[in-house]
Write a structure and sequence with these properties.
- By secondary structure, this protein is mainly alpha-helical.
- 81% of the residues lie in helices and 0% in strands.
- It has helices spanning 4-43, 48-63, 66-76, 86-110, 115-123, 128-158, 170-181, 185-217.
- The longest helix is centred in the first third of the chain and has 40 residues, at 4-43.
- It is globular and about 70 Å long.
């Protein structure tokens, strides 16, 4: 029988954990974009060392499980003098992992940038860095936004892995409540709703941004 009292009593705790999940998600998205952008710039540069550094990063991140990467980052940070930062470790691990996929998404987007735009930038004396920041990346980001939205939705669904390093995000908070109350549906139903709300909000934001960017470029 559905326990209404447990359902309503769980909501405040789950709401607090949902805020943690949202913060973790935002941090992971920002880190993914940062790592992915730097990686794709290195990969498409004329620097051989940068190219191989980027390819190695992408291969390692895509070729090893995210859970293993999370443990490596979590236990590796104390070696750098950073201790007790479970949230940071989770954000870094998920962000680094997603950044490898973001690299490939942006690389495909960059290949769709018309060569004439690059030639026009060169003809007016724009530096390579300015060409990247003013011409290449804005167009590549616009083209890649649907694929990036899909990737970041996957990132949201990866955040429960943070629980293995004791980050009390939404799913982990639900597991704790369920273990005490010996009842699941009343706890995991609002958890599912929480993830849906975050995912739909992000998707709507991405669609709005896509429309604005397309209108800007046209």
């Amino acid at each position: 029988m559905f326990n209404t009292e447990l359902f309503f009593n769980s909501v405040p705790t789950l709401a607090t954990a949902a805020v943690v999940t949202f913060k973790l998600f935002v941090c992971c998205v920002c880190l993914s974009l940062m790592f992915g952008t730097l990686s794709v710039m290195l990969q498409l540069s004329n620097n051989r060392a940068g190219y191989w550094l980027s390819r190695t990063y992408v291969s390692v991140m895509r070729g090893t499980p995210l859970l293993v990467q999370l443990f490596v980052v979590f236990f590796g940070l104390p070696l750098l003098g950073i201790k007790g930062q479970a949230f940071l470790a989770a954000a870094l691990a998920i962000g680094l992992n997603s950044g490898a996929y973001t690299t490939e998404i942006l690389r495909a987007g960059i290949q769709n940038v018309p060569v004439g735009h690059l030639e026009a930038a060169a003809s007016i004396g724009m530096s390579r860095l300015r060409t990247w920041t003013r011409v290449v990346l804005p167009q590549a980001f616009t083209v890649s936004l649907p694929a990036l939205t899909n990737e970041f939705t996957i990132v949201l669904k990866s955040t429960p892995l943070a629980s293995v390093v004791a980050v009390t995000e939404l799913t982990y908070a639900g597991v704790i409540i369920q273990a005490r109350a010996f009842s699941a549906i009343e706890v995991f139903l609002p958890i599912a709703v929480g993830y849906i709300v975050i995912a739909l909000s992000f998707t709507q934001l991405a669609r709005w941004l896509e429309r604005r960017l397309r209108d800007f470029h046209t």
